[in-house]
Amino acid sequence: MKADANAEVMSTGKARDLREWLAHLEATQRLAVIREGVPLEHRLAAIAKRLDGAQAAYFPRPGGHDIPVVSGFVSRRAWIAEAMGVEQAGLLAAFRKAVEHPLPWREVDAGAACQQVVHRFGQDEQELDLHTLLPIPTHSEHDNGPYITAGLVIARNPVTGVQNVSINRIQVHGRDRMAILMLPRHLLAFYQAAEANDQPLDVAVVIGADPLTLLASQAITPIDHDELEIAGALHGAPLPVAKCLTSEVRVPANAEIVIEGKLLPKLREPEGPFGEFPKYYSAQENREVIVVEAVTHRYNPIYHTIVPAEMEHLLLGSIPREATMLAHLQRSFPGVLDVHLSVGGVGRYHLYVKFRKQREGEPRNVILGAFGAHYDIKQVTVVDEDVDVHDPQQVEWAVATRFQADRDLIVISGAQGSVLDPSTTVGYTGDGVAPPHLQGISAKMGLDATKPVAYHGHVFTKVRIPGETEIDLDQEIVRGAAIDWSNVTVRT
């Protein structure tokens, strides 16, 4: 991939748009250019998955399509910190600061990059078809067709006018129709308010946003907090936005592609199966429907797809949740030092908490506080401050040596959990798919893997060797040396 002439390589220390970030990855050997013509069905996703966490994948002319596809450009935690212009250790604090101090966006009057080319459905271009207009991949083996997986869905509260931004899976199953999964969050609340008045809800699906706007879209905030303002705070300046051509929705002005449409009231069409982030398929159900009115894009646009259940998918969800969980817990428990949603827990379900314990019983309160912070949390493990919560081996060591199930285990039955966790449906005995009010019923488990506040001798003292962390191996190892084994001497 050759960088766009207007895409400088990270001159500001932050990724201002997608092209600048991709140019930076290319300049640092973290972007792989794949051969032309890779099929959109399965093959593209398979290649991107093999490169996941090592290099972003750039696909020229996928399936013979003129628009290239990119995937995996924020598939490492360190890359996300780099895009934010901070050290990895400061990632959660920087995100939390942006959430707490959003910057109102700045509307551009005309000439937004995302509207350089305009396609209007049902008016001047009768034969437009999303399947031929955009290179939409089919990802997993049993997916029910092509899916948009990296689209920022932006809608306005029909009561207050304040926007919400989220990433939702969207199945493209007609030339101008898409079925969308909306979990019980803000977008669904907006839609239900509009549907109650038999009104459609205007939406925009933004594809090809910069890394910081992608990350901001996943912030856990109260309703009527526009995530584009959090994106501005992450950028350090108000985010430029453009008004949609068919509605009052505002979208990032520098995005690659925007699909404008309406969520229709009282209409449902089949969607799924689809391979979701828990690495299982969700069943086919009747979902809400978007009818497309227009597609706008930059000259020579780039299409972004997220391979479901891989690191780009997991990190975009887990890092904003971690920042929210850390802030929530620290308000009630000052001894909470760090949190981590483990990759093994699909970046949603298993939370590790580093805690400075001063009294017995405190970890149990932390566990209960974490369960109340987000319904997705299924398992919480609290460890001491000498354990790195970002290292699963250290967490397992703490559980192995500081936890006893008959004393340190908390189990809560019948709580609300993730509707995408397939284990929550095991107890349903009815026909077909469980009704919404019975989906996601889950047990919660907490593990207190902390050592006692007081103990005898060195029974819980962690073994260490003095000076081990200060060793500089480059100073100690003789590079290029060999041993003459006949007389056991070292040759340099």
TrEMBL record:
Domain named 3-octaprenyl-4-hydroxybenzoate carboxy-lyase-like Rift-related: residues: 111-309
Domain 3-octaprenyl-4-hydroxybenzoate carboxy-lyase-like C-terminal: 316-449
Signal peptide interval: none
InterPro entries: UbiD, UbiD-like_C, UbiD-like_N, UbiD_Rift_dom
Domain 3-octaprenyl-4-hydroxybenzoate carboxy-lyase-like N-terminal: 22-95
Protein name (Swiss-Prot/TrEMBL): UbiD family decarboxylase
Species of origin: Massilia varians
Lineage: Bacteria, Pseudomonadati, Pseudomonadota, Betaproteobacteria, Burkholderiales
